[in-house]
Amino acid sequence: MWVWIVCLLTAAPALAEPLCSKEVCDNYGYKVRISIKTALGDKAYEWNESEMFLFRATVAFAMRRYTSDETYNVSDIVVCNKTARVSFWFLVTSPANTAQLVPRGQVEAAVRLSRNRINSAFLLTDQTLQFVGILPTLAPPISYDTPPWLIVFGVVMGVVCAGIITLLLSTLLKRTRSKKNLLETEEEEDRRGSITANGRLCESLREKDPGRGHPDDVHLSKL
Amino acid sequence: MDDGERAKDIELRRAPEEPPNTDERPKWDNKVQYLLTCIGFAVGLGNVWRFPYLCQVYGGGAFLIPYLIALLLEGLPLLHMELAIGQRLRMGSIGVWNSISPYLGGVGVASLTVSFLVGLFYNTILAWVLWYLFHSFQNPLPWQSCPTKANHTGLLEECERSTPVNYFWYRVTLNITTDIAVSGDPQWWLVVCLALAWCIVYICFIRGIETIGKAIYVTATFPYLVLTIFLIRALTLPGAMLGLHYLFTPNWETLKNPTVWLDAATQIFFSLSLAFGGLIAFSSYNPQKNNCERDALIVGCINSATSIYASIPIFAILGFKAQSNYNDCLNDNILSLINTFNIADGNVTENNYGEWLSYLNSTNPYEVEQLHLKTCDLQTLLDQSASGTGLAFIVFTEAVIKMPGSQVWAVLFFIMLFTLGLSSMFGNLEGVLTPLLDLHLVPKCIPKEIFTGLICVVSFTVALIFTLGSGNYWLEIFNNYVGSLPLLVIAFFEITAVIYIYGANRFSDDIEWMTGHRPNLYWQATWRVISPLMLLVVFLAYVVVQAQDKPTYEAWNPQYVNFPAPEVLAYPDWVYAICILLAAVPCSFIPLWALYQFIPFVYKRLADRQLKNPFATDGHNILRHIFSQILFLTAYASLIYVVTL
C-alpha cells in the first residue's frame, strides 16, 4: 500500500511534465511577456510567486467569465518555462478533467474579453503585459456627431462675417449722413443767397473759389 | 541757409508728379503703426520655416556670414530706396514709376501682378494653417494616431506604411492626387477654410490703413510672444541642446560653395519682401518729413534678428524630436533583444545598449543578425531637415505630439503662423490695391470698400485651383516661379530707375529734405554700384542654376514601390510652359509698357515730319492697338518656342 502511494506521488509530477513540452505548449498554450520596469519605472514591483498566483487567478477569472458556468480554479492554470525576462507559457486545463486541455481558441477569446481587467490587476497595458499571438483590441476611433473643427470654424466665421457687415453698414451710414449734411448746408446757402434781392451779384461778390464761379453771371453782372 | 532751404522746398514741391487726390491721402495714426506694418510685412512665414532650414543645410553659424553680407550690400539699400521713394512721391507702385518716367510704369504693373499672384497662394497656406488650428482643439490630436480600417481589425494601410502625421497632411487635409496632371476635385473643407482666410483679410482691409493699423498691433506682436514662449519651453525639453549645437556649429567649408552665397542673397531679398510694391504703398501714407533711413535700418535689422531668434526654438524642438525618435528606435531594438534572449526587463538600457549588443554579438551572432535590428543614428535623424510646409505641417506637428500638453502648443504654434502670414498678406494686398486706387482705374461709383471686396472675391475664385487634389503641386510651382525670378528683375529695374533715370543726386537731395541729412557714402556706394551689380549677378546665377536640370517635383503616391518615400516626377511639358509663363509674364510688362508708351511718341514724330493727315489721329490709335496686339502675340509665341526647345 505504502509503495503504491509513493509510486503515485512520484508519478504525479512525471505525469505533469509532458504538459510543458513544446508540442503541447504550441497547440494549447500562450506565451506571456511582462515588462514591469518599462511600464512603471520607479514604482515597479518585483515579480515573485505571489504575483504569479495573482496571474493564474486572473486567468481563471477570465475563463469563468467567458464560460460563465464552469468553475475554473487557480490549479487549472498551468505555468511553464519561466524565464528571468519575466516570460512564461501557460495552459488551461478543464476543471472537470485535469488531463483535458482547453483549446487555444477558447483561451484567446476569454483573455480578449477580460483583457482590460487582467491589465488593471497588474497596473500594466496591452504592450507591457503581452500575450504573444493575441492582438491587442484596437480602440474604436472616437466619432463625433459634429466634428469639433466645424464648431470652431463656425464660431470664427460668424464673428468675422458679423464684423464685416457691421463695418460696411457703419461706413454706409456715415456716408449717407455726411451726404445729407452736405445737401443741407448747400440748401441753406442757396436759401441765404435768394433772400438778398440781387442774389447773383451777392454770389459773385462772396468769396468763393474762383474756379467754381459762374462766368456767365460775372459777365452779366458787368452790365 | 534758411532762404536756400525754402527755395528747395518750393522747388521740390513743384517736382513733376501727378496732382494728389482731391480727397486727403489716408495716413498712419502714429509712427509705431507704420513701423509695425512694415515689420509685419517683412517678417513672414519664410523667417520661421526657410531661414532655419538654410542655416542647417549650409553649416549652421557659417551661413550667417553670407547672410549678413547680403543684408548689408543688397537688403538694406533696396529697402531704404523703396521706403524713400514711396514717401517722397506719395503714390503706389505704378504711380511712383510713372512719375519718374512714363516709360517705367511697367515696373509698377509687374509689381502689381507679382503681388496678386503671391497673395493667391500665400492665403492658401493660411487656409491650411487655419485647418490645422481648428483641429488642434481636439483631444487626442487627430494626427497622433492612424485611423482604423472599416472593420476595426487593423490600421489603414496608407497610414501604417507612412506615419500618422504624413497621412493627416497628405490624405486628410490635402487629399492629394498622385500626379500634377490628375486634378481631382475641389476639397470642400479647404474651400471653406480659404473663404474664411479671405474674409479675415477683407475685414482687416475694409477701411484701408485705418483698420490695418489697428489689426497690426496684434498680428505683428503676437508671433514674438509665442516665439518667446516656445523658446522657454523648447530649451527645457530633452535633446534641445543637441538641436542648437547642430544648428550653430559653423562648418566653414560650406562657404566655398557658391550656391551658399546665391541662397543667402535670394533669402535676404525675399525675406524683406522687396519689389512687391507693398513697402512703397505703406511709406506713401507717411508725412514727407520722416526719417526713412532710420526706418529702413530698423525694419531690416529686426527682420534678420527675427529670423535668427525664430531658428532657436525651431531647432531646439527639432533636436528634441530627433532625440525622441532616437530613443524610440533604441527601445524597439532593446525590446527585440530582451524578448529573444530572455534578459530581465530593465537590464538593458539606452546607456548599456552598446555593451550588451557587442556581448550578444560575440556569443550568439547568428541570432542577433536574424533580428534585423535598425541602425539608430542620431546624426541621421538630425539631418532630416525640412523647410516650408513640410516643416510646419509634418515635422513640427510630430514634435508637438511628443510634448506634454500638445493641444496648447499646437494652438499657439498655428496662431503664430497665422498672424505671421496675415501681416504679410496686408503688404501683398496693399501692393495690389494702392496702385489701382491711385491711378483712378476704379469707377467713382464703386466705394473703396466694395472694390476691396471685389478684389478679395476674385482672388478667392482664382485661388480655388489650390484646393483641388493637385493643389499642393501648383502651389509649389507658384512659390518657386512667381515668388523668385520676377522679383529680382523688378528690383533691378527699380534701382536703376531711381539711381540713373531719376538721378542719384536728385534722390539724395530728396532724402536730405525728408530726413535732414544727406545719405552717406555707404548708401551712395551701394545704390550706385554694389546693389545693381549684385542683383544682376544673383539673377544670372539663379537663371543658370535653374536652367541646368529639368525641374522635378515630389509626388505622394501610395502605389509607389518605395512608398512612403516621395516619388520624384518631372513636370509635363504643358506645366513647364506655365512655369515659364508665370516667371516671364510679370517681367514682360516692363518692356511692353515702355513700347506702348513709345509708339505714340514715334508716330507723333513721324506725323510732324509729314503733312498733317486728317485721319492721323484715328490711324494712330488703330496702329497702336494693332502693334501692341502683335507684340503680345510675338512675345508669347517666342516663349512657347523657347519652352519647346
Description of the molecule:
Chain A: Residues 1-16 form the signal peptide. Chain A: InterPro entries: Collectrin (IPR042944), Collectrin_dom (IPR031588). Chain A: Keywords: Cell membrane, Glycoprotein, Membrane, Phosphoprotein, Signal, Transmembrane, Transmembrane helix. The complex is a heterodimer of chains A (223) and B (645). Helices cover 57% and strands 9% of the residues of chain A. With 223 residues, chain A is an alpha+beta fold. Chain A has a 4-stranded antiparallel β-sheet. The longest helix of chain A has 48 residues, at 148-195. The radius of gyration of chain A is 47 Å and the shape is rod-shaped. The N and C termini of chain A lie far apart (162 Å). Chain B is mainly alpha-helical and 645 residues long. Chain B is built from 26 helices and 2 strands. In chain B, strands 1-2 form a two-stranded antiparallel sheet. The radius of gyration of chain B is 28 Å and the shape is elongated. The A-B interface holds A 33-38, 44, 83-87, 138, 140-141, 148-150, 152-153, 156-157, 160-161, 163-164, 167-168, 171, 175 and B 130-131, 133-135, 137-138, 147-148, 152-155, 192-193, 195-196, 199-200, 202-203, 206-207, 211, 335, 338-339, 342-346, 447, 449.
What characteristics describe this protein?
heterodimer; A: 223 residues; alpha+beta; 4-stranded antiparallel beta sheet; 4 strands; 57% helix; disordered C terminus; B: 645 residues; mainly alpha; elongated; Neutral_aa_SLC6 (chain B); transmembrane (chain B); Na/ntran_symport (chain B); sodium (chain B)
